[in-house]
Amino acid sequence: MLEGKVALITGASRGLGRALALAYAKEGAKLAMAARSEGSLGPVAEEAEATGAEVLAVTADVASEADVARLVEAAVERFGKIDVLVNNAGLLGPRVKIEEYPEDEWRRVIDANLTAPFLLSKAAIPHMPEGASIVNVVSGVSVEGRAEWGAYSVSKFGVEGLTQILAAELRDRGIRANAVDPGSMRTEMRAAAYPEEDPQTRITPEENTAVFLYLASDESRDVTGQRFKAQEFQR
């Protein structure tokens, strides 16, 4: 499905990012994988390589312009292009009311969840050929503000807007941009947000990759500016 494609995935060391990296690798994509921790990224890169995929693992803080430039430059130097950009990396931040929200945490979450997709898209677009795809990960709280979701919700609202702007600006170049709400999954972030919840009641990220594979493939070549709910996706 993804033979010959080069995919850059952020937040690839765990959760949904790890699941997508392995799913893309199994479908024949070449991978540029990024995460903040080399210790957690390395084992995932090895798993992906075990499928036969060509893998570049880069430790980077994607909220840093310098790190993003280094990441994209390394991917292009290794693979020559970027066909798929998955902006997955993100932070939950504190679950408190706005009046109690620490300013430094606010800025950290906004940078990780919104500034990073902006920086990555900006850096990657010049190296994306016609038919390329940007996939931005959003959330149920990016279309409905809820109490005590603070900067996470606000940042994801911003990613919804960024996706629409990218779709409009890149349509004539044949590059598409879409947003995906993965829904609730059995991840560390979900457990932190809902500590009282039984994680076994949620699907695993590995069970939730179908729409991401579709948006990375040529099957979705004419689909742009759309918002998908991953767990409701049907071809």
Descriptors:
alpha/beta, Rossmann fold, 7 helices, 41% helix, 14% strand, NAD(P)-bd_dom_sf, SDR family NAD(P)-dependent oxidoreductase, Sc_DH/Rdtase_CS, SDR_fam
Describe this structure in words.
Pfam families: adh_short. Belongs to the short-chain dehydrogenases/reductases (SDR) family. It comes from Rubrobacter marinus. The chain has 235 residues and is an alpha/beta fold. It is 41% helix and 14% strand. The chain has helices at 15-26, 38-50, 65-79, 103-124, 150-170, 188-193, 210-216, and strands at residues 6-10, 30-35, 55-59, 84-87, 133-137, 176-181, 227-229. Strands 3-2-1-4-5-6-7 form a seven-stranded parallel beta sheet, with helices on both faces. Helix 1 runs parallel beside helix 2. The two termini are 14 Å apart. The model has no long low-confidence stretch (mean pLDDT 95).
